[in-house]
Structures are given as C-alpha cells and as structure tokens.
Amino acid sequence: MSGLPEYLRGAADLHVHSAPDVVARRYDDIDLAREMAAAGFGAILLKSHSAPTPARAYLTRKVVPEIKVFGGLVLNDTIGGFNVSAVRAALSVGAKEIWMPTHSAHNHKVHHKEHGGLSVFDGHGELRNDVQSIVRLVANADAILGTGHISPEEATALIRFAHTEGVSKILVTHPEWGATYYTPALQRELTVFGAIFERCFVSTTHRCGHVPFATIETAIADVGVNSTILASDLGQPDTPPPAEGMIEYAERMRAAGFSQDDVRRMMVTHPRHLLE
Asked: What is the domain range of residue 83?
C-alpha cells in the first residue's frame, strides 16, 4: 500500500467504520489503526451506526500508540435515540463527536422508502427539548456536533440553535449524497453559523449513488476550502480501504486544481483542529 505524500503526513480521517459492528467491515479497530498509521495518518475517528466507540478507541490507542484514535456516538435507536444520559456518558469518556441520527433518522428512512424514524423537530415544528439539551452538552464539552442523516431543513434549525448555544465545531455530514443533499446556496448560508462540510469519499462510490468528483470539487470551489474537510466514510468490504480512498481523494483534488496547501488544510489542518 502506498502512503500519504509528505505534505499530508499526519492527516486525520474523521469518519471511518470498523468492526466490531452489526454489519461486515473490512478491518477491526486495531487492524484499521495499524493500516492508517502505516500510511502516515495521525488520527482517525471511529464511527458506528449502532454503538458508542469511545471505549473502543481508548483500547485501540493502547495497542496502536502510533496513531491517535478517537470515538463518538450516533443517536440511533440502538442507543435510545435522543438519549441525553447516553450523550453525557459518552462525552465524559472522551467522545469527540455526537452525530444526530443516521439510519434511524426519518429523513434517511424516507430516502429508502421506509416509514417512521427520528426527527429533531417536535410536533410543533420546533427543536425537541432533548435535542436542545444534547446540543448544550456538546457545547460544554467542546465536542463536534455532526448532522448525521437528518434533512437539510432539520439541520438548518439545529445549526442555527447550536451556534447560539456556543457550539464551535459543527460538521455537516456528506452534503453531496442524495439523502442529505445541501444546495450550494444553503451551504454558503450555513457557513455564517460556523458549519463545516464533511465531504466523504464514499459518496463517489456505488454505496451513495456514484456522486461525481466534479460535484464535490465544484462545491469546495464555491463554498470554500476553509469550510471543508475531506473524510473517507469507508470501511465497507466492497469499497476501497480507507487509507487508499483518502490518498486517491487527495490526488483527485490536486488534479482538479487545488493546491497542496488547500488539500492539506482539508485533510490535516481543519480535521486536527476539530479534534483538539
């Protein structure tokens, strides 16, 4: 496996999947950490749609000290949805990111022609009280608030509220994917409230409808390098290994005309700042 070019040494992938999980993954936590460290990455953030990952990250760091490994919590049905106690516990043991629902989100289910699901809105179209409490916990912990798979309409209300509550690290999850597509105009609007857009390699694969790289490149040029991080969202057995995907991502960005400094900011500087 080739490694990162020198200008990207120490890069951080803030969205990567590994085992143990309820679905098949290419690597377990330890093997993933070893692969990413060998490729020159400085940090990874483990994401699971079904379980918290901070404890797994802690143990992985003990086994693979060559790379910083972090965890987070996704607010899906498997942890009780908008579970304030679960968020408080996860943050107390070092969770770096709290994601809104993904597979349990109403918006996700609608996209897949399913019924039900969780929304951040209550019956009156306002942010739920428990969601507001979770945002305040994230603000107090200086953690990252991820939008997950909620709709852009929901995310807009969430981001505006989070901004007023002092959340300084807001990540919009794969804004190019069909289920969570944010127009360039909306992206520009949300940057005013501190939103950063996590543009994922997986969106360009069969897993997310083969979004053209040109779509991502155009969005970055429009919204700005300073409002973008590049992440893999890889770890599936039928997609490239996360390290290889990120290396290819960087190469495509350079081929599209982004400078080494631009790519470094999106893969090293901004992600590492979010982890601080």
From this structure: 8-275
